[in-house]
Every structure is written in C-alpha cells, then in structure tokens.
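>> received
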Amino acid sequence: MKALRQRGGFVIGLVVGLLIGLALALAVALYITKAPIPFVNKVPQRTAEQDTAEAQRNRNWDPNAPLAGKAPLRPAPAASAATPEAAPPASAEPAKSGAERPATSTRDPAAILAGVPTAAKASAPAAAQAFDFYVQAGAFTRGEDAEQQRARLALLGQIAAVSEREQAGRIVYRVRIGPFDAREQADDLQGKLREQSVESQIVRVERR
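>> returned
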C-alpha cells in the first residue's frame, strides 16, 4: 500500500512538472512573438509619396542636363553654352599661370635684348595643346537616337562618332565631332551647326 502511494505521488509530480514546463514554454513563445525583431522594425518604411516622387524624377530624367548645367541650353550668337566638361578658352589659362609665377627671371640680359621669348611665353603653346576640343551634338539614352543624329550630321557634311558613357547609373550615347586642336575651330563648327538648327556644345577633353 505504501509503495502504491509513493508511485502515485511520483506520477502526479511528473504530470505537474510537465504542465509547469509547458506553461513556461508558452509564455516565452508569446513574449518572443510580441517583442520587436532587432534591425527589422527599425528600418524606415517608404511611403507612397516617396515612391511617386522617385518615379517622377526618373520620368523627367534628362541625360543632357549635367552637360548643359543648371540653365537649359539656348542658342545664342554671342557666346556658346558652358558645360561641366567645357572650360574657358585655353588662352586664359596660360595668362593666369603666367601671372602667378614670380617676377624674377634668370635669363641672360643679352637674350632679353635679342628679343628671345620668355619661358612663360614659350610654354603657352604647349599648355594650349594639352587639350582636345569636341563639338557634342547631343547625348541620348537610346543608341538608335544617337545613330539618327549621326546620320543627320552626315547629311550636313559632318563626320560624327557615337561614344558610350555611364551617367547616373545609365548608359548615355554621345554624338561628337572632333577632335580639334584649337578652341576656335570648334567654335566655328558650332556656329555652322547653329545655322542648320542643330544645337551643340563645346567639350574640352584633356589629352592622355
């Protein structure tokens, strides 16, 4: 009789222990389910307004915008449009560099009397020849449009080339004529294209 009571008490204790363990496991599961997940709930959610604004920016994206600057390109007979790659006339840079040099000179007085050019004047042509100039007749997001522009220039007697460049995460096809050794040659061609209602820009590229 005593052995039966001990066995019954053991079974009751075992059942009570299992019930307590299940209750604790259920409580832990509920806590974990309701608790926020680290690094997930803290991520900001995008709103519908942000998605609409991004779609509008992608719709109005213009591959020529970085080349034309903040203001839209307009044909003007007095001056050509400025681009990020374009720069002031090459003749302005030698003058500036010459002004920054010391006024002292180690030249021979006999050379000065003979009219030999100074070192600053002698280096000016070399500085001017450090760049090539191109006339860019547009940049397009589709290669077909670039080829059409190149064919249009060919009908006007101008030989252009199409080059690819990644810009703002997209491939841009640029139509350029050149290179020219002097900025004046590029300016003359730009004037001729303007007379044919072809908008263009002067691009200066450093020689390698």
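>> The first strand starts at residue 131 and ends at 140.
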